[in-house]
Every structure is written in structure tokens, then in C-alpha cells.
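Researcher: We're teaching a course module on how sequence relates to structure. For the next exercise, students receive a sequence and then see the predicted structure as C-alpha cells, so they can try to spot secondary structure elements on their own. Here is the exercise chain.
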Amino acid sequence: MIEKSSPWYSYALQDRPSRSGSLPPPERFEWGTAPGMGPGTPVLGQELRRRRILELGCGYGRNAAHLAGLHGAEVTAVDLVDLQIKQANESYGKLAGLTFVTFDGLDFLNLGRSEFDVVYSVFGAVGLVSPSLLLAAVARRLRRQGILAFSVPHPSRGGIPRARGAQPRPDLLPLPGGPGRPVARWELDEQGWRSALGTAGLRIVRTFELGTSPRAQPNTLMIVARRN
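Model: And here is the predicted structure for the students to work with:
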């Protein structure tokens, strides 16, 4: 469970659902920062019913609820902010096949033994944990030919220089009504992710650059990879 002084706890407060109580699953799976700008669920597989899926950094559980409620997937959704897991359970905890867990993503991967058909992260653990550690842990829990899909802040968003090497760089986490809080991110370009994934035994099969509209400058890099 994360400390309330953490920037991630503060960030979670700004994204709380406007309604309390049980909610229907969202109609769409979102990969980017604006509705409708990602490829939806087909990149995870054409048939998701009863597929075992793991989300790393589920937030309030919207995407996980979509997969379980509308596709019949067996979803385990992990987040280290207990506030978000409590709210996710209140909103979507009655959906069949959906389990929310308060846990650090890397620790969950390293301590568990279950295998998954799909692992995904939408601005979650990928990019916030050393790729050399996280991607190897993901590969160990993916079945052969299993899929890893993730979206991260675009490394060239807003004209900032591309990240170089394997070290994280500082970023500001925006917070309402005040200055951003510093966090560390590994912000690789496509070639950097290709190399990191390859070292872990994963290969890129699709990439997407997403913006807030079809003609907007990309602010999100999305990658779909498969275990060898």
C-alpha cells in the first residue's frame, strides 16, 4: 500500500469517478489521453472470452471492467494505490471474472506463479519501473505467444529531446490546483523499446503514435509485443 504523501496518491484523487456505487463497464477500451484515439481491444486478440489477462497499474479499473464485463475475459487488475483499488471494487467489483489487487506491479510479477495470455499497461508500470527488470518479469508470466501491450508518454511529446540510454529522467506529474510532482520515467523511443523487449524475449508486432485528435502531435506511444 502506497503512502498518502506519494505523488501517485495525490494524482489518483483528481481522477476519481463522479458517481459512487456500482457502474456499468465502459463501452470502449482507451489507450491514449483522449477518447477513441487508440486501437481498442483487437490488438489484445480477436477472442478474449476466458482469456487470462493482467493489468499493471489499473487505476480505477475502467479498462479492466470493459474486458471482463463486455468480453468475458478473466482479468486480474493490479495497482499500488489502495484508494483506487477500493473505488474500483465499489464501481466494478460485482463483475464476474474481475479481481482487483493492491500490489506493486513488479512485486506481483515476481512473487506470483500464474501465467497469463495477455499483460497490458496504460500509463501504468511500464515506463515507471526499470525495463530490464519489468519486461523480464512480464515475460516469465506470459504464456508462449502471449501478448504484452502498453502505452506510455511519447518520448518526443511537446518537442522535448528523446531519452537516451537506460537511465530514467525526471518528469512532472500534473496535479490539480498546484505545481506538478516529480517522478522518474524511462522514456525510450521505439528502437529503445525494441531492444529492451528483445532482451526479455519479446518482439514488437505493432506500434501506434496517438494524439488528442487524428491530426494532433503524438503525445502517446503505444506498443504491442509478443513473447517468443
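Model: If you want an answer key for the exercise: The beta strands are 52-56, 74-79, 98-102, 116-122, 142-153, 169-175, 178-185, 202-210, 220-227. The CA atoms of residues 54 and 119 lie 5 Å apart.
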